[in-house]
Design a protein that fits this description.
10 helices, UDP-N-acetylmuramoyl-L-alanine:D-glutamate ligase, alpha/beta, 4-stranded mixed sheet, 33% helix, 315 residues
């Protein structure tokens, strides 16, 4: 069976607080709260592992508050290959307004890594990459790592595995410029901000994103474009597919894009056709939206939404 490795260099513990009718500059009362292990690659791994695809995780974790991650990996059947560094993993605050189905993120900076830990990670990464078919590099870079660090990791993988990168800004540009990335997963705003030329000439954001995706296919094998309530698209050199978003009651949007990517990679790892892998990705994201925390619940698994999603080939 195909194996997946996710890389999370700047993970976080997500402190989610539900505040109905949240108001800025007011005293707000929370109806509940929870702490979950997070970070984009961790969330991707959680979704992929729930499909019983062998999944491992690596990156950096702080020793001071690592227990929540270790417990999650053990309970989720995820193989822990993280490098543990002194200090604490950062925490992020997610304020969810269940009444209006919106989420406000407050993300803190991560730890600054000493060179010795970076060297340990690179040695471990070089060892690990030969044992995996899919390598997903996700999220922001912590302090101390250059903007071309993702590009360096991609070069180390080369043609040894399918490489997906979910990032933004200069780190994504440098990774794509290697010419070895198989998949990126931006949303409409990220792809315009990262790759746009500033000349939309009256185009809608979706039209601009569509144009940029087509252009990027010269360098990247596939592009999974998130379009929010409008659904998602998968751009490939063989064609472009669009998936609808099923109607659901949103509990939290945190990690939905990561679950989408986890479902997409799980579908590809199971050798599903592109349109079916996209449908599975959309269903996985929908299942995640119904709960707080990573993964999905047994009450609302992806299978509940799979047949509600329409996938069509645009061209």
């Amino acid at each position: 069976m195909k194996k997946i490795l996710t890389v999370t260099l700047n993970p976080a513990i997500d402190y989610t607080v539900d505040v109905p009718n949240f108001k800025i500059d007011h005293v707000n009362r929370a109806s509940g709260g929870r702490r979950d292990p997070g970070g984009k690659g961790v969330n991707v791994a959680t979704a992929a592992a729930k499909f019983n695809v062998p999944t491992s995780v690596t990156g950096f974790l702080g020793l001071g508050n690592a227990a929540i991650f270790r417990e999650h990996f053990n309970s989720s059947g995820i193989n822990d290959c993280f490098v543990y560094t002194d200090g604490n993993t950062r925490e992020g605050i997610k304020i969810t307004d269940s009444g209006r189905q919106i989420t406000t993120d407050i993300n803190f900076p991560g730890f600054r890594l000493p060179q010795k830990d970076i060297d340990v990670f690179l040695d471990k990464f070089d060892f690990l990459l030969h044992g995996f078919d899919y390598i997903i590099i996700s999220g922001s870079l912590p302090e101390g790592l250059a903007s071309d660090f993702y590009g360096e990791l991609v070069k180390r993988v080369g043609q040894n595995a399918f490489i997906a990168v979910d990032a933004a800004g200069e780190p994504l540009v440098r990774a794509v410029d290697t010419g070895a990335v198989n998949l990126i997963k931006p949303n409409i705003h990220e792809i315009i901000e990262t790759f746009g030329d500033g000349e939309q000439n009256g185009e809608s954001p979706l039209a601009a994103a569509d144009r940029l995706c087509k252009r990027l296919l010269e360098k990247v094998g596939m592009i999974a474009l998130s379009m929010g309530e409008a659904g998602s698209r998968l751009y490939t050199r063989e064609g472009v597919f669009e998936a609808s978003a099923p109607p659901i009651t949103v509990a939290s949007t945190v990690g939905a894009g990561d679950s989408f990517l986890g479902g997409l990679i799980a579908g590809l790892a199971r050798e599903r056709p592109h349109d079916e892998a996209l449908r599975l990705a959309a269903a996985t994201a929908a299942a995640k939206l119904t709960i707080f925390g990573p993964g999905w619940s047994d009450e609302n698994p992806p299978g509940k939404f799979y047949d509600l999603i329409t996938v069509k080939r645009l061209y």
